[in-house]
Specification:
Elements (H helix, E strand, L loop, with lengths): L1 H17 L1 H20 L6 H31 L4 H26 L4 H9 L1 H67 L5 H18 L5 E2 H18 L5 E7 L6 E2 L5 H9 L10 E9 L2 E9 L4 H4 L7 H12 L4 E7 L3 E9 L1
Parallel strand pairs: 2-4
Antiparallel strand pairs: 1-3, 4-5, 5-7, 6-7
Helix pairs in contact: 2-3, 3-4, 3-6, 4-5, 4-6, 6-7, 6-11, 7-8
């Protein structure tokens, strides 16, 4: 409860100082305090220097906000560079004499300071121009940063929407195939049907409740794959060779959910299902602390026209797209296609 209250207070403070009028006021106050401290160092009359900086700040603020609110959006942003710089010079030549007039007027009791002001008018002009011109650079930089942040947020939202769409395609695609298998066994009144229902329920629980996260623990994904392999062993012929090996330490490594299942599903759908009662699927998963390597090898049907059907599914297309989105430049995917064997070699940096 204390942590929640602390976070609430921090959030309210952040929201307060995020308001433009607040952080602008803080910046002007810091400007006045810093320059007053510098000017009044060793002086017996700090109030005099404070009033000077207040006058400077007022005229600086007039020039700054005229630049930010009018000149930049109406001229600089419209690429009217000549007009912009001409109006910026004019505004400085209007603001600076007024600033000098008020500084001289209030310094009647300080003739030395009056003389300093009058003798250094060119420096004051230059200082005012630099100060106001610096806000142009700050405005350009801040607008660029804001644009980059907004673009990044839009890209993130777009990517998340696309990932949700891709995942929504994968889940029904797999479920459709599995239910077809279960339906075939129930028609035969097979004793394997209840066991398949249990495995399927565990897999559905994983897909519905675990896979909504961007990353899941690797051991949960492997358990899901083991259930799938067990389900395939139940429905395949006894003389079909199915192997699934996991090597390396599996702990809490995080991985995107349902990345591997389209490859594995493909190996059964387009490999063993076309062999009738013979064939093989060999799957090995090699796990390292920051890397995972999946290799799948399955036999191909003897008739080319049967195997040709494998290229039409949406599973592999989607998983390639997910890999591009989730692991850009951090994965390698190689497909091996020989006359008798089809292989998938996938390596991901976690």
């Amino acid at each position: 409860m204390a942590t929640t209250k602390k976070e609430y207070i921090v959030e309210r403070i952040y929201d307060f100082f995020s308001k433009r009028i607040v952080y602008h006021s803080v910046l002007w106050a810091l400007h006045i305090i810093i320059f007053t401290s510098i000017q009044s160092a060793g002086s017996n009359n700090p109030g005099f220097w404070l009033s000077n900086e207040l006058i400077r700040a007022i005229f600086y603020a007039i020039g700054v906000y005229f630049n930010i609110l009018y000149l930049i959006p109406n001229y600089l942003s419209q690429k009217k560079f000549g007009t912009y710089f001409a109006l910026l010079f004019i505004s400085v030549f209007i603001i600076t004499p007024l600033q000098i007039f008020f500084l001289v007027l209030k310094s009647e009791s300080f003739p030395e300071y009056q003389k300093y002001i009058l003798d250094n008018q060119l420096i004051i002009y230059l200082g005012t121009f630099i100060f106001i011109g610096a806000t142009t650079i700050m405005k350009i930089v801040s607008d660029w940063v804001r644009h980059q942040r907004e673009r990044k947020e839009l890209e993130t939202q777009t990517m998340q929407s696309e990932l949700r769409f891709l995942k929504s395609q994968i889940n029904p695609h797999f479920l459709f195939n599995t239910l077809n298998n279960l339906y075939a066994l129930t028609l035969k009144k097979s004793d394997k049907a209840p066991e398949i229902v249990i495995k399927l329920s565990e897999m559905m629980r994983y897909m519905l409740y675990e896979c909504n996260e961007k990353r899941v623990p690797l051991y949960k994904e492997i358990n899901y794959l083991k259930n799938y392999m067990d389900l395939e062993r139940l429905r395949q012929a006894k003389n079909v060779d199915i192997a699934f090996e996991v090597a390396g330490p599996v702990s809490n490594q995080q991985i995107a959910p349902l990345l591997f299942i389209p490859f594995i599903e493909n190996s059964f759908k387009h490999g063993l299902s076309n062999h009738l009662d013979q064939g093989f699927v060999n799957i090995s998963l090699s796990v390292e602390p920051e890397r995972i390597h999946l290799y799948i090898e399955n036999s191909k049907p003897s008739l080319p026209n049967q195997f040709h059907k494998r290229s039409g599914g949406i599973g592999l297309v989607n998983v390639r797209r997910r890999l591009d989105l989730l692991y850009p430049e951090r994965y390698e995917l190689d497909i091996e296609d020989s006359p008798t064997i089809y292989g998938v070699n996938l390596e991901i940096e976690l």
